[in-house]
Amino acid sequence: MQAAQGLTLGEAENAFARAIATDRRLDASDIAMVLDEKRQTIRKSGLLEFISPTGTMADVGGLENLKKWLAKRNGSWLPEAQRWSIPAPKGVLITGIPGCGKSLTATCMATLWGLPLLRLDVGRVFSGLVGSSEQNMRGALKLAEAVSPSILWIDEIEKGFGSSGGGDSGTSQRVFGTFLTWMQEKKNPVFVIATANKIDALPPEFLRKGRFDEIFFVDLPTKEERTHIWKIQLDKRLGGTSEASGDFDVDSGSLNALAERSEGFSGAEIAEAVISACFEAFSERRRLNEKDLHRAIANTVPLSVTQAEQINAVRGWASKRAVAATSISAREEYSTSGSASADDVTSWRGGRQIDF
């Protein structure tokens, strides 16, 4: 019955009837049909999007602190958690450098927790009719609560709420106020996961304790994290029947060399370097080799170079206001690798140093 939460009586009856018509019985194997009916209902609302999980936390390179935090709260919305006198978690805000795994973590988290993932596009909330924007926000939040326990994902939230209150007769402020009040007072277990690239654009009242349980900062990956990301991306491109595989082994020596050469790269830039190298091999109809990858690295100018000043400013903001998503053990690698001195580790890596 939990799978049918959020459906009207008629919608639930239709879903159960379809399931029974398939094999003349209703059992756990028919949950997919009920969830499909729910997906259609959410899609018809036009405000929320039902996202089907496609990966696991193993697909996220590094970010061990953030992973541990999420894992410890898995199942905390269940009745058995009440014996520990703990409330269901409210949500988490993930900020940091673009391309470092914030959105990927949000999508993979649904698999970890086994909950439906709903994405709210704040742009869809705003309508030209007076009062309809506020009604749209209330309707989206009501639907998210109806299918609870669930995860509500708001990507790049600063673009929707970062400039609230400007030149629209107060509509943005009212919509923002509705969302803030709901976050503070919601009773049903709807976990909000929001991502932001420019967190300083968000109003201060949005960041106080009680809205989110924690604010995490995702920095550029360390060497250990880059090694993990290279392995994930190469396994993804070279696995199965790929024609690109075969010319070199993805061993620790190769991964270490790639991680060394790609210092300052984000996870997205590493993924694009692998794709670029695969195109190089495809153009000559041959297998991928390590030189292709090194060439792709050399031809990439990472964001850490083109936007160095902005990245340093974001790190400065996060050093006292957010928790580092990368574990202390991974950050300490910089103090011994020659990339930075021990005294520079704290200032170079953004986020407060906490190990969960």
Give the gist of this structure.
The chain has 16 helices and 7 strands.
Describe the model.
- With 356 residues, this protein is of the alpha/beta class.
- The chain folds into three domains: 1-45, no CATH class; 46-218, Rossmann fold (3-Layer(aba) Sandwich), CATH 3.40.50; 223-304, Helicase, Ruva Protein, domain 3 (Orthogonal Bundle).
- It has 16 helices and seven strands.
- It has helices at 9-23, 31-45, 64-72, 102-113, 122-125, 132-146, 158-161, 171-185, 223-238, 252-261, 267-283, 290-298, 303-306, 308-321, 328-337, 345-348, and strands spanning 48-51, 91-96, 117-120, 150-154, 190-196, 214-218, 323-324.
- Strands 1-3-4-5-2-6-7 form a seven-stranded mixed beta sheet, with helices on both faces.
- α9 crosses α10.
Topology:
Blueprint: H1 9-23, H2 31-45, E1 48-51, H3 64-72, E2 91-96, H4 102-113, E3 117-120, H5 122-125, H6 132-146, E4 150-154, H7 158-161, H8 171-185, E5 190-196, E6 214-218, H9 223-238, H10 252-261, H11 267-283, H12 290-298, H13 303-306, H14 308-321, E7 323-324, H15 328-337, H16 345-348
Parallel strand pairs: 2-5, 2-6, 3-4, 4-5, 6-7
Antiparallel strand pairs: 1-3
Q: Can you identify the CATH superfamily of the largest domain? A: P-loop containing nucleotide triphosphate hydrolases
Q: Which geometry do the CA atoms define?
A: globular
Give the SSE string: HHEHEHEHHEHHEEHHHHHHEHH
Helix content: 40-55%
Task: Flag low-confidence runs.
Answer: 334-348
Q: Supply Rg.
A: 23 Å
Q: In percent, how much strand structure appears in the residues?
A: 5-15%
